[in-house]
Design brief:
- The protein is of the alpha+beta class.
- It has five helices and eight strands.
- It has an eight-stranded mixed beta sheet with strand order 1-8-7-4-5-6-2-3.
Length: about 180
C-alpha cells in the first residue's frame, strides 16, 4: 500500500483521530497496535439507516437484524486476492464469537450471485454472503478499497473502517473486536 504515508505517520494520524472521536471504544494506548502492514483503521460514523441487502439464500438483511450484537460488514470480491486470503481468518473469527455476539457479514461487490455462491462453496465459507449487485452499498459507505470492513458496536453505532487484508486471528484484530463488544 505504497500510496499511504509511512507507518509512523499513519499511527500518529490514527491516534489523533481516535482521541478526537470519543465514541470509539478502543483505548488510545492500543492505537498503534491496530494499524498493520496490510491494513489501515480509521473512524467511521455511518449512517446505517435505510439499507436492505439480500443474501445468497434470499434473506433480506436490514440494520434491525444487528440489534444487540457487534457487526462486521466485510466488502469483498472473488477477483480480489487479499479478499480471498482474508476469508479463512474472518470465518474463524465468526466461529469463535458466534453470531449472537459478533455477526460477520460478507458483502460481495458487484458480482453475479452464482459467482459469489460458487466462491463461498468452494472455500467452505459459511458466513452469510450478502449481494451488493449494483455496488450501491459500497458507494453509500465510501468503500473504495477491497477488502474493506465496516465495524459496528453492539449498541448499533458505526465505529471503524478497516481497509486492506486483516488476519482476524492477530492481536490488532482482537483489540478491534474487543472495542466493539
Amino acid at each position: 500500500m505504497s500510496v499511504f504515508p509511512p507507518l509512523s505517520s499513519r499511527r500518529h494520524f490514527l491516534k489523533a483521530t481516535l482521541a478526537a472521536t470519543s465514541s470509539l471504544a478502543l483505548p488510545l494506548a492500543h492505537a498503534q497496535d491496530v494499524t498493520g502492514e496490510a491494513y489501515d483503521v480509521s473512524a467511521w460514523a455511518g449512517p446505517l439507516a435505510g439499507f436492505s441487502l439480500v443474501d445468497t439464500d434470499g434473506k433480506h438483511w436490514v440494520p434491525a437484524d444487528f440489534k444487540g450484537r457487534a457487526v462486521l460488514l466485510n466488502f469483498w470480491a472473488s477477483w480480489c486476492e487479499p479478499c480471498r486470503a482474508e476469508m479463512p481468518s474472518l470465518q474463524q473469527l465468526a466461529d469463535l464469537h458466534g453470531p449472537d455476539q459478533l455477526l460477520v457479514l460478507a458483502i460481495n461487490f458487484k458480482e453475479k450471485p452464482a459467482r459469489a455462491l460458487q466462491f463461498a462453496k468452494s472455500t467452505g465459507l459459511r458466513l452469510p454472503v450478502l449481494l451488493d449487485v449494483d455496488g450501491q452499498a459500497a458507494h453509500r459507505w465510501g468503500v473504495k478499497v477491497f477488502p474493506s470492513t465496516l465495524a459496528i458496536g453492539k449498541t448499533g453505532q458505526p465505529r471503524l473502517r478497516i481497509q486492506g487484508e486483516v488476519d482476524w486471528r492477530g492481536k490488532g484484530a482482537q483489540k478491534i473486536i474487543a472495542g466493539l463488544l
